[in-house]
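Box 3.1. Reading complex inputs
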Amino acid sequence: MLVQIGYSVSYGDDGSRAVRARLEYPLGEEPLRWAGLAGPIEALSVLQTEERLTLAAAAGDAVQVRFYARPSGFAFVDADWQERGKLNIPLEAAPDLDGSSRRMMIGGNRQRFLFVQADARSLAVYDLAADARLHALTQVAGEGASITALERLSGGTSLLIGTSEGALSQWFTNVDAAETFVRAREFDPLEGGPVRGIVPEQGRRGFIAFTDADWGIYHSTAGRRVLHLEDAGIAAAAINSRSDRLLLNTASGVRYYGIENEHPDVSWTLMWGQVWYEGYAEPSYQWQSSSASSDYEPKLSLVPLSLGTLKATFYAMLFAIPLGLAGAVYTAVFMAPEMRRMIKPTVELMAALPTVILGFLGGLMLAPFIEAHLPGLALFLVLFPLFVVLVSLLWQWLPGPAGSWAQRGWTALILLPLPVLIGWGCIALSPGLETRFFGGDAPAWITANLGISFDQRNALVVGVAMGFAVVPTIFSIAEDALFGVPKQLISGSLALGASMWHTTMHVVLPTASPGIFSALMIGMGRAVGETMIVLMATGNTPLLNFNMFEGMRTLSANIAVEMPEAEVASTHYRVLFLCALVLFVFTFILNTTAEAVRQRLRERYGSL
Amino acid sequence: MSGADKNALIWSRWRGSREGGVWLIASAISLSLVLVLGMILLLAVRGMGYFWPSEIIAFEYREYREDPWMPVQGEVVGREDVIAAQLISAGYELESDQGTVERWLIKVGNRDVGPSDFLWVLRQHTRALKVPEDVAVIERLEWGNFYGTISELHRGDERIGRAQDGSEALMDALRESIERAEALRIQVREIEKHDIGTINAALNALRLEERGLNLRGEWSPEHAARLERARQVQQQAFEQLSGQIAELREQLMRDSISVVDAEGARHEIELEQIVRVLVPNRMGVFSKLAAYLERIWEFLSDEPREANTEGGIFPALFGTVIMVLLMTIFVTPGGVIAAIYLREYAHQGMLTRIVRIAINNLAGVPSIVYGIFGLGFFVYFVGGEIDEVFYSENLPAPTFGSPGLVWASLTLALLSLPVVVVATEEGLARVPKSMAEGSYALGATQFEMLRTVLMPIISPAIMTGLILAIARAAGEVAPLMLVGAVKLAPSLPVDFTFPFVHLDRQFMHLGFHIYDVGFQSPNVEAAQPLVYATAFLLVLIIIVLNLLAIQIRNNLREQYRSLES
């Protein structure tokens, strides 16, 4: 007979709430008959979800498994269970179990496996989906020890095993092809002799384990023991569904504990180390914070997010450093003052452009454009500098005023049509190149020949869009530092016969290098914290690579995506705050370094 | 000098002075300028081009050779060249596998009739391309544009105009009907928004009063009777207004038109649904210009329709302005006083140095971190406390304990504080010492000197700081996503119901609007033009603000120069 505690909630007129408990009989009030089993029943196991119920009983040399199902959904509240089948599994009769009775548990994803104790140290795993074939026979307790406790973790996928030596471990069947039954992790052992019992918490991956003399509260994903207390003669433990009340039956009577344990599921390893999640082939870094099902094990590794942040920053700096620094050097040293007065405000304006617009253009325009014109883009990167050098050479042959006009620092203006012309040329050539060399589809070619997958919204797009946002920051600060280099240093160098270029490289740049350093730091700080561009111009998939053609998820974008949906004060919510703290610390270090360097630079110039 | 000598000289000069290097670093500036200008130009063309009534074309199209020819009419909204090989591998039959093929994106509208309102067509698979004279674009309140030829206008059971009797007369009658429908719609909206809004507010106030009395234990039969009476008064008013609305709606349903679409099928469209009817192919440049300006005005002044993909952006514009104004009110006193204290009162030592570093640091903190701070501190902590103390009768529904206008403004005030402090400090640093010394010599105290001498001089500098702060706040989106901006606010944060400025309400914001419509919209192609237009508007606002700040700063410098001389 299957008995269940049911609750009914009623509301009074005055807004009060009354909860009544009652006994329910999901499979009817008639006792179940186990025809085909001989002898007394040694072990029973039940696992129930919304629409499936599996029941197993072991007696003598056999196990019988019964399957039930019911329709689910709003229309079928509390529909009756229908029996769907029956399986008999023969067992080795009377194994050596160190005197205890046989232990058995149904578990695994979708109630697929039956775990039966085969001898004192081993578990036999039967695959219920394949006619109860023996899937594995695994030794789960160490030499000289025996299994003393067997329990399912919330969610039903993992098995907890306690041994006579007080050791506790978590096991599950992998999702790799062989579906091996593996030990995922070992917990801090209890010290009071054999593990007497394990009580799982509901709705999260915690449990309580006890021996005769001590007990502890654990969390499986975080792999930590939250609490460890000693007591005498513990015989049983029970915890309520919200995991904040605990009953402990001890030698000195029943103890009642109120537990304040809101976030056992966070640990340093969980956030920064490799964690072996249920259903994964090996320990890994994962960020998958939520899912519709409460059976889901949240994966809260900050590693993919931090790496994504670094990746986005790296590609943005790759674009921004050459443009920003080269522009700053030219503007500070070579540019005509009239033009400089125009360029500075323009760059300030560029800094003020809302990043949501850059993100929008990056995601909706630049991403498809780059995907369609990859060869043209590569061509541009090669051709543009070549043409600039070529033009500079040809310009020398121009007669009289035009030549000197360039000398006076209007080169940037002269070169203005060049990017447009070359850009247009490269775009026009791009389809031809793509058909000729890449079989008409460069992204597909990259995937096939370089073995890297290609996302439309990738790191390259982010690099360009975010680089665009960082260029003005780097430019402004570096330009200020370069322009502030005392004039007598430059005049001195020129008087000694050095060319302007040599003076720039060997006098101006080294003198201003702390300022340039601080420009890079502040630019980097901006790239690290930038939200809208990465949010809109990447696919926001938490990945663990530095591939140029795939996306990433950064800390900042992660906050923007998940914060509006995070339940207030939940673990997820707090981890998102932690993301913000990590971001803050990162930018704080960058900015403080930059600011300290800048102040020292100011003092040094002051003395010159 | 011979030609060869000259060449050699130029060559050696070019190499010696590393001319190539100089030009290379100069090209970085050119490239950046081209990118910025190109971007703004792109936004302008895509954003503003959308409002121009563009030509309608009609042609026959088939996707594959075995398909029948299908008539299509609509506007060409995009053109691109696709590599032939890609299309062939996708299963198309083309004339040649070399080079590229022109592909058009046609807006065919008629979302309620056809499978989709946009269609990609290959130029080579079309035939009989023409520009039909009489196809009208009918802009509707729902379902987007309808493209078709208007055949008849009905007024009740009466048939007013028919296309074959002369299109001029028909169009005149139609224009008259549209104006009438528009006037009626405005009346309905007035009643719904204003009058019924007031009644709802009153009913809500009564409900809260009842709960408040209950909570304090002061509930009595007298109160019950009084509240019930008040409720009935409001109820009656509501019923009367509903009657009025029903009557107006009745009148609205009077007129309709018959339209024939590309395939020759007839559709009836109620005039109640119609915003505007244009026949672009028959319009001259001036009438197009008039329609263009009208549509831009609609964009600026109207409310969004069709999940924000059509209509205007007025609530977003309004929300942005109100939020920024509030932010200015919060940030000005704090920023200015902090700067004056730092510069004029504080002892210049280690502490002020640390404070300055902290302020600069504050400027570098990622905006999303401000958002998180605003959410955790302002919304949940401060807002939650306010609710406990002042709005307990409304709990558990939060009043100030949820994201809203005031928290967004406060968060952005914090974010733009460094801008104001730095600008004000800069202004103070530029004031010549002699002015302060002069006023001390005349017997002024430090405060009097500040008030009468320094403040007037530095006010333009403060102004510059504020304008820059506003420009930054207007473009910031990330923190707003957490503390109050929403995709569609049911009502504006300022309206005619007491207390007029609703600090607790959520609001719409231009930047968030761009993000939301561009990336969360189910119909991206329909939404894109409006996103470009909104983005252009936002860029324009920010450019104007920045130019203003630069202008003020330049004037300020001139002024100081004359002071110093």
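In summary: DSSP finds 15 helices and 13 strands in chain B.
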